[in-house]
Amino acid sequence: MDLSQITKNQKAHITHIYAQHSLKKRLFSLGLGVGKEVEVVETSLQKNTIKITLGFSAVALRFDEAKLIEVEVA
Amino acid sequence: MKKIVIALVGQPNVGKSHLANAISGSNLKIGNFAGVTVEKATAHLSTEDFSIEFIDLPGLYSLEDFSADEKVTKDFLLTAEYDLILNVLDSTNLERNLMLTTELMELQKKMIIALNMDDEAIKEGIDINADAMSKILSIPCIRVSSKTKTNIDLLVEKILHVNKNPLVAPKMIYSDEVEEQLQTIVKFLDDKHFHATNALTNRQIAVGLLWQKKEMYAYMHEHPLYVELQPILNNALGHVYMYCQCEEIEEVINRQHSAFSTGLCAEVLRVTNAKSKNFTQAIDAVLIHKLFGIPIFIFLMWGLFQLTFSLGEIPMGWIEDSFGWLGDTVGETISNEALKSLIVDGIIAGVGSVIMFLPNIMILFLGIALLETTGYMSRAAFLLDGFFHKFGLHGKSFVPLVTGFGCSVPAYMAARTLKNKKDRLLTMFIIGFMSCGARLPVFVLFSGAFFEEEMAGNVLFGIYITGALLGLIAAKILRVTAFKGEDEPFVMEMPKYRLPSLKLLWFVVYSKSAMYIKKAGTFILLASMLIWFISSYPQNSLIEEEYTTKIEALQAQLDDAASAETVAPNKEATEETKPTEETTAELSAQDSGSLEDTIAALENEKHEKLMENTYLGLMGKVVEPFFAPLGFDWKMGVATISGLAAKEVIVSTLGVLYSLGDEVTEEDNSLREIIASNMNFASAMAFIVFVMIYLPCLAATAVFYKEAESLKYTVYLVLFTFITAWVLAFITYRTLLLFT
Ligand SMILES: Nc1nc2c(ncn2[C@@H]2O[C@H](COP(=O)(O)OP(=O)(O)OP(=O)(O)O)[C@@H](O)[C@H]2O)c(=O)[nH]1
Ligand SMILES: [Mg+2]
Fold first, then answer.
1. What backbone torsions phi and psi does residue B142 show, to the nearest 5 degrees?
2. Mutation target vs B (from A15, A16, A44; most B CBs, 10 A cutoff)
3. CA distance to B343, B615, B621, B729, per residue, from B533 (Å)
4. Domain ranges of chain B
5. Which fold is adopted by the domain B176-271?
6. What is the ipTM of this complex?
7. All domains of chain A, ordered by start, with CATH?
8. Is the CB of residue B498 below 6 angstroms from any atom belonging to ligand 1?
9. Is B94 close to A19, i.e. CB distance below 8 A?
10. What is the pLDDT of residues A10-63, one digit of tens each?
11. Do the Cβ atoms of B492 and A59 come within 8 Å?
């Protein structure tokens, strides 16, 4: 299951990140590491972007990017 | 006096610039989104013995991953001369911030950690044990708040202290397996008595090699020892990959750093009550709501332009009246005609017409400042990303584009936060479509002149929206032609909402206004004088005489008629029929009326003819054919050209030109009315369209050249904007002609 399939207000753990090079690094440095807990808090109308919270910060992602993040519902 | 150079480094939006301001009293730009600072800036602090120079750098998430702004920081850290790193952290987001700290620790530089936003942390029930943290890392850690200025003095003290003493290597510990491999490499280097020429320790080299840093490889490759080193390294890497069960070094590094940060947090961080995020969450539930988010955004923008027009309207009248009064009063005291004209029609009319729009500018900049400081900026980027994406733009392009509503110069620089070069160039190409603050006066003037008072605000909003939409279409066209390429992923941090301090808002508005007034008093003043001069000279005495005689003759006739009328009304009836007494009187009144009109028309014609024969008039004639298809007369053409110097000059030029030609129609003396009576609707709209799109001023174009690092693209920009402006203005003019 990937992050784009998570419904609003659901918590999940990251199990794997399939993104390539620089995107992967960026995700890492924004705190999206393997094992981290994330929660989807908002999705935009046409399912373009989602807002997730993790730890003490919030990050916006496109659905395309969210698809690259494998998660497991907590 | 000793000079100390300090690099302020930290993740974006942690308050580096704010901290630099708090320490030194400087006024670096602050905003509540990632990527406010995009170029290094300096702040100074002098104590009795030291002069400290703070280098405020763009924020970066990690040393690895870089967009153009992050590269500035990375380059500075790796190549510039500085004495110590002041690593600024957001206490309310410690764990993630520590990830960068771990990387900085690998640089083996003197370092101090400022745990910023302590005020917020306390409110959110977050407690960091700074002493314990200092001990664990061997780096002094101090809890500070730039907002409340707590512990700022202590921080400076520590800086001086650390600077004085020799470097204490920070304690960065990796997992046992990695440490073991590092030891092997270090031991090999030590055994070979290897000493790096650039003061790197062998452990640093080992870390650099194991983490596969290109620079380190390049450096070690030069040494013969590398041949023997390589197998050891391969072996070590193999072990590390095996332990971590993953084949990518990035991931290994990330896990090492992340484990270290997590471990450290567990030791020093205590969270008592986690009511923290509620405030931001609650606001976001509305502002980035699925359905309401975008309408709210549009409403807010609409509101801003309504206010810009309607609120700005009030003081605008006063300012215009004061300048009018000033012109009259000063004019009376000067007897020399030429000097009087220079001061009244040149300087006062030119500068006054620009200053008049100061209130509008202030409101616009206040709006932009609110957008920047509250945290709404990244929400808007979030909302618009989907829409932007369809046009080949990136959600993050929103930041430079909005900045472009203020001024194109910082906007071009703000585009640095876009990682992909093509996205960046594309964004830069369409920044010009976002009408900058300097064009605001033109739009306020024209929408006020050609539309009802109640509609003008909407028209203003419409102009900006149209500009933005045209920009999007242009982006799409450029995207499928010139800037083909992969989309950059959209990943962006959303900061929490913060209430900006009134002081900060006031400062932003004040400094923008001061800049505007200064520009009016210097640049615009000179430009107005120049325009006055070239539109007054050379004076053609032939035309002057010719018209004067004509007018005098008519005047005499008029006087005759008037006296004849009073003496013997019937005598007037010399023409064709024999009218009755009543109709005679009527006719004579009509006659003298039309005579007066003719005189006025002649007077106007004289001014026109005179002006057409000045230097400016002659220049106007040259550009006229180019602008004629758009319905511009030569004055509008000249104003457009002069606007290349700075967009405010458009208004001041119109001010001077119409003020010079305005001696006849005294009763409607506001620039707005003069323009309304001198231009037809279709040309005026074409003018707006042209101004909306054509090249931003020369200063901005120079910055574009610097940022794009390409003459080719700069030439494209010039051609692109001019051609688009011309074509669209042409379409506007022709279409409107059909309807009017
Ligand atoms: N409450 C509080 N807010 C702070 C403090 N320091 C900074 N801020 C706010 O945090 C936001 C970011 O501040 P900046 O100084 O622009 O951050 P920066 O690190 O320079 O950001 P970039 O230049 O984008 O890397 C602003 O809204 C500041 O007002 C603090 O100590 N307390
Ligand atoms: Mg900054």
1. -130, 130
2. A44
3. 11, 9, 17, 30
4. 2-164, 176-271, 293-529, 539-610
5. Helix Hairpins (1.10.287)
6. 0.93
7. 3-73 (2.30.30.90)
8. yes
9. no
10. 889 998 888 887 788 888 888 888 888 999 988 887 778 899 988 888 999 998
11. yes
